[in-house]
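Entry 14. Two folds queued back to back today. First construct below, sequence then structure tokens.
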Amino acid sequence: MTPVYEAVKSVLTSHFNIPADAIRPEATLEDIGLDSLAVVELLCVLQDELGLRVPTGDDALKSLQVTLAQAAAAVEQAQPAPVPETLG
């Protein structure tokens, strides 16, 4: 699997306490017990860990029927997060 998929898997096991054996590419977000609020939290954590701006408006991430492989593919399309300008 891709590095982004592995990052998703790591966050799901460490941050959401989802058993590693439940995390499979074909499992949907709903299958692993996430609700829409948890998906937003997952995207926020991934943004922080990967330094990306995850496309939260992406249709691929709006449905709980999205598979983990599809979600990881959508995250892979994310752009690097902008670096804040320093003041002064």
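Second construct, same run, same settings:
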Amino acid sequence: MSDDALTQVVRMLAEVVGEDFLLDVEVGRDTSFNEDLGLESIEFVALADKLRDHYGDDVDLAAFIAGMDIDEIMDLTVGDLVDHIAATEAAHA
């Protein structure tokens, strides 16, 4: 399940930042959105839209990060998001 979520998140990131950008970065669970990918806020919004389109309203990126402090948000990794998706889907299964 989480492998599927990881594949989906990587695909969505490629759509948001462009596949050419991701050629230089191997995206995995430990990839940080800030330091490794340098995602801007507008790209986070685009990613949130893609997550909602794919998973529905249950996977709400804004709500997920709303409870975090700035350091947690800055350190957020792809794996953190994948775990959130997996937990959300398990709760609604």
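Quick look at the second one. The mean pLDDT is 91. The longest helix spans residues 2-17.
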